[in-house]
Amino acid sequence: MKKRMDRAWRWLAVNMGKHARYVSIVGLVITIIMGFGLTNLDFATDQDAYLNKNEQVYKDNVEYQDLFGGQAMLGAIRIEEGTTLEEFLSPKNLKIFQEIEKTLVANDSIEAVATPYNTMVLSDTLIQKAAPTEAQVKQLADGEITAANLPTQALPTTSIAGVSLDTATAAAKADGDTDEAEARDKDFGETATRLLAIPEADRTLDNIEWRKFLLYDNTGAVRESLLPFFPNPQTTQIVTRLKGNMSIELEGDAAVFTTNTIDKAAENLDPAAEVTVIGAPILLKDINDYLRGGILKLGAIAVVAMILILLLLFDVRWRLLPLGVILIGVTWAFGLAGYLGIPLSLVTISGLPVMLGIGIDYAIQMHSRIEEEVLLDREDHPIQEAAVNLGPALLVVTFDAIFAFLALRFAKVPMIRDFGLLLAIGIAVICVVSIIAPLAALGIREYKSPTSSDKDYSEGWLGRFVVKIGSLPSKLAVPFAIGALLIFVGGLLVESSLQIQGDPIDWVNQSSPTIKKIDTIKEQTKSSTELGIYVASDNVFDQETVDFVHNFAYQQRRERTFDVDGKEKPALLTASSIVTTMSGIINVPGATPKGDIPRGPTAEAVQAAWQVAPPSLQKFTATPPEASDGTSKNMNLIFRVGYSSLNDGEAVVKDVRADVRSDSPEGIKAVPSGLAVVGVGLLENIQSNRILLTYMSIAFVGIFLAVRLRSVVRSVLSLVPVMIATGMASLVAFALGLELSPMTAVGGPLIVAICTEFTSLMLLRFVEERKRHMAPQEAADTAAARTGRAFIVSGLTGVAGVAVIATSPLPLLRDFGAIVALNVVIALAAALVILPPMLVWADQEGREWVSRHLVSEEDLAVSRGGGGRHRVKDTGSVDGPKAGDGATDAPART
């Protein structure tokens, strides 16, 4: 079997060089074909990248967006100091807001718009109009009339709001609650006095006194029903709801259109105001745009770093050849990914520099080995010898990487699974290119222009450096093994205590205009996102459903908090629905004891309010009646949230879900949905098996090596530096109290892949030298001297490939790149320093755990006598390109 494999490698080496021209042509054709595959790459930043389609959260969010639209764009309007809300909401400005709504809703990608104008119109209607008749409801639904065409009520008690207040007062009296009844009577009297002071003809939005009446309650505070749109006396909002379940590109276009429309119209506001328009669609668009350009930028930085490393440290002919090889390899890898439909995301974007860093090692190792066979061993057939000796080892380390990356396929986050598949396929493709291309290019080079030099690079400073750092006494092997195990176990014990960085705002470029806008809105409104809950029942306008929404909204606002520097802050700031609008209208200050839930509205009042609401506000709050039975089946409840961290959101969403399960009456379903819930789902998926992925990759690689190398000991020795790196990373993070980037879920398998690549090559080269009759220490020193240059260069390129991710302006990527690069440095240092003495100790006479069954008993017997380095017995050369006279005239080395 061994002889057949050697002949196959020799045949490959000969024919790649002999037919280099044809190999080049075929390679060019494949590269062009794969280049077209690059055009098929898609960029995924929507929920498909974060959640699995079979997850309930995913299904709920799709249904929610089908019912009430997608992401929201928030326009915060900050009024100048000295200007009141009623002054700012002048007829001119209200007209501007009306035009903004008309322009936006005319866009097919926009579902609905809530502006200061239509919210004021609804307040005006509820106070001046009675509940519509059945005929009027049909006319309103058909668009034949608007609420403005309904008869105006001269008496306040006959309007929708007036009837609701009167009904609540009567209910309080019927319940015998005299305190509430007296508070309501007093408040109603004050309200009636304020209203009747304004002549009926002047009760229009053109009148500042009427606007003041609509905006403020009898205490002078903004009415509770208006707080979702007027969070404080100096701020008002425009909320634009985009169509649901759109592609990220369409959503981004709609977000830009919304921003431009509001910004342009706001220039005409008088008095002027500070207008800030932002929303999750803009944030996602920024990320999507970065993915399209950022991946090339990261790749370019990695290429520049590798050029410098190769020029400074890789002292061979055609020293930039490995870079050309890896560029072809990654083109094939990403082209194949395009054909296979593997999308690019925040995680997979790092695949380019990672593949550059890992993959170039293969080409460097092959290139260096060919130079070694030419210059040091003076082989007659150096290309064949390099292929026979290194080719099988490259296949081993390729499968090391593939098995490490396949662990990512068990991640619960789709984009992490895609990343694992991308790397596994990419590394396999790169391995093929890294074997064939150097064999062809250097084979024809050595045939036409043989390398001739008396320089022994193994005596160079890189070779001496690697020998030096790996020459610790073999007696330290056992303490090293114990120390590695303790570090690994220690890291395992503290892993569960590490916190994931949970604020999505901290994941993106902190100096971007988008983040500045988000910070501005948070400062002005105390919130920049929302938690949506859709309520479904046979009829959402029946009393049972209305009571549930009313009670649930007040309960959640009162009970849900999050911690800020040891202080409890409200997690849910305001509740917005057609039910809470009416709840706010009838909630009289002082009528309800502190801590109790106020009396709720009647179902008839809530339904009437929805029927007379402007069309956009209807779309925001409930679905239209179904033709089959004339009832509405779904209602929307939106909370403005005070937190931004997904860690805080996770706790809130869990509590909300628990209350839904315990408090929902039979037949009523309440489902938390929206981006806030999607983000929590992402965090839960990351946390669920983040730790497991690293240990799965170690297990997969360990099992493969045990089978392939036919020894558990050899497998364990290869993994010792990996155990040190993974354990040390967790211990350092725990000791320093660091929050980990969510992308650390892919960091562990990356470290395993990169590090086992080096440890496997080192172990196999050690075994190869043992076959040449060298004693363990001599074999370790010779392997280090001859491969030191390649290991240092390829190690630095591997670190550089990961480290360039740290140049990303996105902290999510930057922190990940820095942490993983540091861990890789630790792992490689452990491989170069700790592995050699462990190999020597494990292979001393009487043990020979490393060489046993890989080295013949005859060769081991000779090595015990210190036979020195000899050429491995030739298994048969194949005629073809070989080194010229300049490479064979020098005496053979022993």
From TrEMBL:
Localization per record: Cell membrane
Keywords in alphabetical order: Cell membrane, Membrane, Transmembrane, Transmembrane helix
The protein, known as: MMPL family transporter
Any Pfam family hit: MMPL
UniProt-annotated stretches for the region Disordered: 863-894
Family matches, as InterPro entries: MMPL_dom (IPR004869), Mycobact_MmpL (IPR050545), SSD (IPR000731)
Organism in which the protein naturally occurs: Candidatus Neomicrothrix subdominans
Segments crossing the lipid bilayer: 20-38, 294-313, 320-340, 386-407, 419-442, 692-709, 716-738, 750-767, 788-810, 816-842
Membrane topology of the entry: Multi-pass membrane protein
Gene3D superfamilies listed in its UniProt record: Multidrug efflux transporter AcrB transmembrane domain
Domain SSD: 333-444, 715-841
Superkingdom of the source species: Bacteria
GO cellular component: plasma membrane
Protein's UniProt keywords contain Transmembrane helix: yes
